[in-house]
Write the C-alpha cells for this entry.
Amino acid sequence: MQTKPFRIGTRGSPLALAQAAETRSRLMEAHGLPEEMFEVVVLSTKGDRITDRALSEIGGKGLFTEELEQQLLSGELDFAVHSSKDMPTWLPDGLEISAYLPREDFRDAVVGRTAPSLTALPDRAIVGSASLRRQALIRRMRPDIEVIVFRGSVETRLRKLNEGQVDATLLALAGLKRLGREDVITELLDPTEFPPAPAQGAICIESRVGDRRVLDLLEAINHKPTYDAVSCERAFLEVLDGSCRTPIAGYTIVDGDHLKFSGLILTPDGTQEHAVSIDGLCADAVKLGRQAGETVRTAAGPGFFASWS
Ligand SMILES: NCc1[nH]cc(CCC(=O)O)c1CC(=O)O
C-alpha cells in the first residue's frame, strides 16, 4: 500500500462528521493504519446552505452530494462518506457506491414536547418535518395533525422544538444514536406501521469506478448484509423515482442468505397507498427491489402519480 494519505470527503454537519470519523476508525482498525493515513476533507453542499425550504421544492436528491461528487471525479478526493438515504438514485458516470458500513437501526423516532407519542399528541398538533414520507405517514395515522417544513441539522431541529415551534418532530434513530442524542426520544415507531425511508440508517462510501487502490482499501470494511439490503431498497426507489414527489418507504430484513423487503407508496395526504412485500435470495437483491417497485407501480397505475404533481 502507498503511503500517501487517503482523502475522505464529507459534509460538515455534526452527523456527517460522526459518520466520517466512524469510517476512518473502521479503516484504521481493519488495515492497522495510523490516523495520519486518512485526511478528512469537509465540503459544504447546496443542501447544507438552503435550510428554509422543503427538499422536494429545491430539487430533491443530489443536494447533499453534488460538490463531493465533483471532487471525486476531479481526483481531489479518494472517497466520500454519505448517509445512504441522501444519495441520488442515479450516480454520475464514473462513480459508484463501493461499500456500506454495518447498518444502524432503521426506525424513525418521535421527539415529543407536548406528548410522547404520535397517538397521544393533542388534537391538531403541529409536527415539524421536511420529509414527504413522514408527512404522508403522519397524516395517514392522524389526519388532524399539521405538518410544517422543518429543516436544518439534528441539533437545529431539536432547538426549534424546544423553543416551542412545534409539538413534536420525527428523526431517524440512526442519526440520534450516532450523535449520542438518544436521550431525547419519546417514541420509537414500528416499521410495519411507520416504515422508514429506503436506505435509512446506512452509511455508504462512494468512490471512482475501477480505482483499485481505493476499492482494495474499502473492501475490508464493506458489510455484505447491509450492501444487499440497501441495494434492494435503492432498486425499489429507482423504479419509482420517475415520480420523485411521491412519498416512498421501504425496508429490508436480512436473514442469512435470504432477505425480505417491504415497500409502500402513498399519496401526500396519506389517504391512498400501495404496499408490497417480497422475499428471496440476497444474491437477487437488486432484482427483488426492482420487481417490488414494478408491482406497486402497476398496482397504483399512472393516475396515482398524476393526481397531485
Ligand atoms: N436527510 C437528513 C438525514 N439523512 C440521514 C439522516 C439520518 C441518518 C440515517 O438515516 O442514516 C438524516 C436525518 C433524519 O432523517 O433524521
About this structure: The longest helix spans residues 285-306.
